[in-house]
Amino acid sequence: MTTADTPPLLRIGLLGTGPWARNTQAPALAAHPGVELSGVWGRRAEAAHALAAVHGTRAHTGEEGIDALLEASDAVAFALPPDVQAPLAVRAAEAGCHLLMDKPVATTVAGARAVAEAAEKASVASVVFCTLRFAPETSAWIAEQAAVGGWFTARAQWLGSLYAAGSASEYADSPWRREKGGLWDVGPHALSVLIPVLGDVEHLTAAAGPADTTHLILRHTSGASSTLTLGLSAPPGAAGVEIELRGERGTASVPGWAGAETAFRGVVDALAEAVRTGVPHACDARFGLHLTELLAAAEEQAQAG
Question: Cα–Cα distances in Å, from 133 out to 100, 129, 197, 245, 267?
């Protein structure tokens, strides 16, 4: 039962049962005080039933299972490869469900554009989970640096060791991540920090580095420039995340953050706020489309050599 002061729970269904769903999304959704985890859908029935049982909700599989989950949900969260996510996000929007998507929205501009247009046509809220925009520590830092202004240049290095020798990470088994590399996996995170602080990207230059590493040079609308180094194949001793700004008031470096589950609770809050107010979030499907456009342009340049 709800009262005038207690809004009804937002029913969010989860599409996907892989490591990201198991380790982050399902626990965060199940524990969120404003959410009812309305069900779990998976391509493998045994995985869907196992994850649903852990969190006390209903499992769905197959095409009819997607329809059943959409019918039972106000919104859906995606823990699927981007080019599986995109058409299902269109389908969910057309069914009237709000969208909580993972980055990148898709690995083609056409796929991401279809999602953005479907969300706008259906008037559903959408948020793309770029971690640092929703972790409390980093989201506050981004807002603070955007307000300060006067930045001259920035440097971002986001290097993982997912594909380094000896890595045992279960995320390394992801086919799309292995195919597209760090540009598409961690690039959205870095760009989502730099764009709100330095302004949109006016010009982009990209070059391939060792293994899956990509180097970017960006010119922003503020007049500032930035450089990015993105990859998933660094030696463990070289892995890490650094984002540093330099400008009129000196330097500023992005702080650490508590972890993905805490940040995911933040993105759930952001979606609920967008649903409640009707005001689009800055990291909505249209922003996800823009990130895809930038990443596709960078990939084309890097491959051309």
Answer: 14, 8, 12, 16, 8
